Amino acid sequence: MKLIIATPSPYARKVRVVLREKNVEFEEIIDVPWNRDTVTKNLNPLGKIPILIEDGNEPLFDSKVIVQYLDNLFPNPLFYPESPIENVGAKLVEAVADGVSDALVLIFLENVRLEKLRSGDWIDRQATKIYQGVKYLSSYLGTKQFFIGDHFTIADISVFSCLEYLDLRFPRFNWKIEHPNLKNYWDLHKTRQSYLETKPEVQTIETMKN
Ligand SMILES: N[C@@H](CCC(=O)N[C@@H](CS)C(=O)NCC(=O)O)C(=O)O
């Protein structure tokens, strides 16, 4: 099994963490999906990582699709809970965390454009999604140790990936001060081995000319 990733990507990180937690052997292939020579365009019509490659199978893409497939293939431990209430809760938290990451990516890309082409209104619009999304996550968590019930699910992995990506791309938002319960949660989980092994690392990408 091979997983195509980008080192800063919060979406790729979700899958990288899940594969480690499930003890699945796999090879990580690092790509830069924004560059002209990316391998993604031949494997995913949307040109995005993560992409899971298995001999004899079609490439799989989208972190949610890949993690659900991995849960079916290697159900121990399960990251999408079986109980309908917990299952939908985990997906809702994942949707918000991924949505915050989407807004962070859009701000990052806007800032890669030539300065005269950048839109402050667009950046502000995305920033609002980030502030509101993190506020929602903070209130969903409350004083719990895990987002869903008392176990580690895709909700936790998505939020953790999103928060550390936020530190990388949007450090002006100090969520640790703004939402102390998220800071406590982050402190509690930050030494998890699968997190330590997948910390986001910046990549250099080609500048967009227009
Ligand atoms: N919904 C997708 C999002 C994946 C995504 O946006 N990946 C980014 C990297 S962080 C990408 O490859 N972007 C390249 C592009 O949009 O051209 C998922 O969960 O996998």
Which spans of ≥5 residues are poorly predicted at pLDDT below 50?
none
Helix amount: 40-55%
Q: Briefly, what CATH class of the largest domain? A: Mainly Alpha
The spatial strand order of the largest sheet comes to 2-1-3-4
Question: How many individual β-strands?
Answer: 4
* Overall tally of structural domains: 2
CATH topology of the largest domain: Glutathione S-transferase Yfyf (Class Pi), Chain A, domain 2
Order of helices and strands: EHEEEHHHHHHH
Q: Tell me, briefly, the overall form.
A: globular
The assigned structural class equals alpha+beta
Our Rg estimate from Cα atoms comes to: 17 Å
| Helix segment tally | 8
Largest sheet: 4 strands, mixed
State the end-to-end distance: 37 Å
Tell me what the CATH architecture of the largest domain is: Up-down Bundle
Percent of residues in beta strands: 5-15%
Mean pLDDT: 96
- Which compounds are bound in this model? glutathione
Structure description:
This protein has 210 residues and is of the alpha+beta class. It has 2 domains: 72 residues, 3-Layer(aba) Sandwich (Glutaredoxin), CATH 3.40.30.10; 113 residues, Up-down Bundle (Glutathione S-transferase Yfyf (Class Pi), Chain A, domain 2). The protein is built from 8 helices and 4 strands, in the order βαβββααααααα. A 4-stranded mixed β-sheet has the order 2-1-3-4, with helices on one face. β3 and β4 form a beta hairpin. α1 packs parallel to α2, α1 crosses α5 and α3 packs antiparallel against α4. It is globular, with a radius of gyration of 17 Å. The N and C termini lie far apart (37 Å). The mean pLDDT is 96.
